[in-house]
Design a protein that fits this description.
The chain has 325 residues and is an alpha/beta fold. It is built from 14 helices and 9 strands. The chain folds into 3 domains: 162 residues, Rossmann fold (3-Layer(aba) Sandwich), CATH 3.40.50; 75 residues, Orthogonal Bundle (Helicase, Ruva Protein, domain 3); 70 residues, Orthogonal Bundle (Arc Repressor Mutant, subunit A). Helices cover 47% and strands 10% of the residues. Strand 4 and strand 5 form a beta hairpin.
């Protein structure tokens, strides 16, 4: 982390593109904000875009804006995030989620500092620094053909890797103290102390959700604490090394479950039924998400990591499949 802080201060003074790599919850947005704040652009806007939260057509409009009548529902001209970040910084979170078409437009902005709004022919020039983040290895994504090689090398001027919390357990006590101060003040509580066994459990846990997961658990403990000490009784079972009771099918059974659902879908489909592939895939995906959510105790961060998708995508699918609780 000292190397992360050193690089952050050093690259902040430049206009170079920065690529932040690390698992979900490691603090990539905080580093992006620090780079912006410490840079000559610090007085300009900092604009964040979560590339994994929107479909391609909506994300293109969000990034570059659109003109009236460009598509159904475009009743007015709209300024995109790159324009809004003029003289400042745009932070493209989860850039690995972008499509090939959008990657072409992003490459042009990075190289030429210009673009057109959706549905327009007028070229707009901007002075915007780009900081991108990915929770997946972009070079691996390039090798699998899911990310443009030229865009990767254009983004990869400076790369900062944020290690997961399990690789820096010595930071846990300081982070716990930091979050205790924040949530004591936010909730008008007084929980300044941490039981020794509780701290040992916090340092021994692997933290699949990284710093964000730790932050959530400390907030929960502060709210629930009956006294002035954070004890083991206030920590979730996984942190204490205990497994939650398994609900529903085991993960090992999901392959069998998928086969059963496909067979049922085929059996119930009429001979001339259209879009059979999408219907069966949706049925299998719904059941998979329901089972994984149950096995993760409905903790979306853990479920998303286990499914290999980002949290915003999971949240949307929970809503689409009516699985929200």
């Amino acid at each position: 982390m000292r190397e992360v802080y050193r690089l952050t201060r050093q690259v902040a003074r430049s206009n170079a593109s920065v690529l932040l790599m690390g698992e979900t919850g490691t603090g990539k947005e905080l580093i992006a904000k620090a780079i912006h704040r410490l840079s000559p652009r610090g007085s300009g806007p900092f604009v964040r875009v979560n590339c994994g939260a929107l479909a391609e057509n909506l994300l293109e409009s969000e990034l570059f804006g659109h003109v009236r009548g460009a598509f159904t529902g475009a009743i007015d001209n709209r300024t995109g995030r790159f324009e809004a970040a003029h003289t400042g910084t745009v932070f493209l979170d989860e850039i690995n989620s972008t499509t090939a078409k959008l990657q072409v437009k992003l490459l042009r902005v990075l190289q030429e500092h210009e673009f057109e709004r959706v549905g327009d022919t007028q070229t707009i020039r901007v002075d915007t620094r780009v900081i991108a983040a990915s929770n997946r290895d972009l070079l691996e994504e390039v090798e699998f053909g899911r990310f443009r090689e030229d865009l990767y090398y254009r983004l990869n001027v400076i790369t900062i890797y944020l290690p997961p919390l399990r690789e820096r357990r010595e930071d846990v006590p300081e982070l716990v103290g930091h979050f205790l101060r924040i949530y004591n003040e936010a909730n008008d509580r007084h929980v300044p102390h941490v039981e020794r066994k509780a701290m040992e459990a916090l340092q021994a846990y692997d933290w699949p959700g990284n710093v964000r997961e730790l932050q959530n658990y400390i907030e929960r403990a502060v709210v629930l604490a009956p006294g002035d000490e954070l004890t083991c009784a206030l920590l979730p079972e996984p942190v204490l090394g205990r497994k939650r009771p398994r609900i529903g099918r085991r993960a090992a059974d999901l392959e069998t479950l998928a086969a059963e659902l496909v067979e049922q879908g085929l059996a119930s489909a009429g001979p001339d039924e259209d879009n059979l592939h999408a219907k069966i895939v949706n049925r299998v995906e719904r059941e998979l998400i329901a089972q994984v959510m149950a096995s993760c105790g409905s903790v979306q961060i853990k479920a998303a990591a286990r499914l290999g998708i980002n949290r915003n995508t999971l949240h949307k699918k929970l809503k689409d499949y009516d699985l929200e609780t």
